[in-house]
Specification:
Rossmann fold; 8 strands
């Protein structure tokens, strides 16, 4: 099975190891993985801020780049939601793109959903000695309906104990530019999230959206808490042995 990996901007610029982990997992599951070089931002920041012209231009580019592939896998619920949920509406009146966007949407999958729902894959060659807790991002949960898939995979990792946090489905306060426009509200929301992580007794936080992880990590570090943070792909691929998100990779 030939799969295109849509890397996402944050993975590319902030945490490339997530992309490598995604490739490793897909190859373990028997896929031939292609990373199209022409891929760009999915247009979500522009779309969420009302810049439809820019969002449409970027969406066209993504559709042109990915349309030829049988399956498109995305290690991000928010970018996955953009391609799968919002592209068909955004491009519905665009000549030559409306039908393509709708068809492409049916071939787009968030990484853990693709592994579990499509490939039925859970033979993970990974171990993690620690107590994890999982954060459900709003886009993964509410737009894509993903909840049990990452938990199913984490449950197959040797040595891993999963501690659920209270109010796990609540937003972390990131919301893209929401945290910039409404910093006081965002800070209160992420404080609630971090307090629940502490109460769970977990020493490691994982999630499938790097935006959420960066937001929560920032608060964890400012509070001086000894909690490691990884993208779920890094843990599932056995690549969570080095520095976590927000840690100095030189140490």
């Amino acid at each position: 099975m030939r799969v295109a990996l849509f890397v996402t901007c944050l993975v590319d610029l902030v945490r490339p190891s997530v992309g490598f982990a995604a490739v490793k997992l897909l190859e373990q599951a028997g896929c031939e993985v292609v990373v199209p070089l022409a891929q760009t931002c999915c247009g979500q920041p522009a779309y969420n801020n009302g810049d439809k012209k820019t969002a449409v231009r970027l969406a066209r580019q993504v559709v042109d780049t990915l349309y030829i592939y049988d399956h498109i896998v995305i290690p991000s619920g928010s970018c996955g939601g953009m391609l799968k949920v919002h592209y068909p509406e955004l491009l519905k009146d665009e000549p030559d793109y409306g039908s393509k966007a709708a068809e492409l949407a049916g071939r787009c999958y968030e990484l853990t959903s693709f592994l579990v729902d499509v490939l039925k894959f859970d033979s993970l060659d990974a171990a993690y000695d620690g107590q994890l807790t999982y954060h459900d991002s709003c886009s993964s949960l509410r737009e894509l309906g993903i909840k049990q898939q990452p938990r199913h995979l984490l449950g197959n990792i040797n040595g891993c104990q999963l501690n659920e946090i209270a109010d796990t489905e609540s937003c972390c306060g990131f919301g893209g530019t929401f945290c910039v426009k409404y910093p006081a509200i965002s800070t209160r929301m992420v404080d609630d999230k971090v307090n629940n992580i502490k109460k769970s007794g977990a020493d490691t936080l994982v999630a499938a959206d790097l935006g959420c992880l960066l937001n929560i990590t920032g608060r964890i570090k400012r509070l001086g808490l000894p909690i490691k943070v990884f993208h779920v792909a890094e843990v599932l691929a056995g690549m969570a042995q080095g520095p976590g998100i927000g840690e100095d990779e030189s140490t």
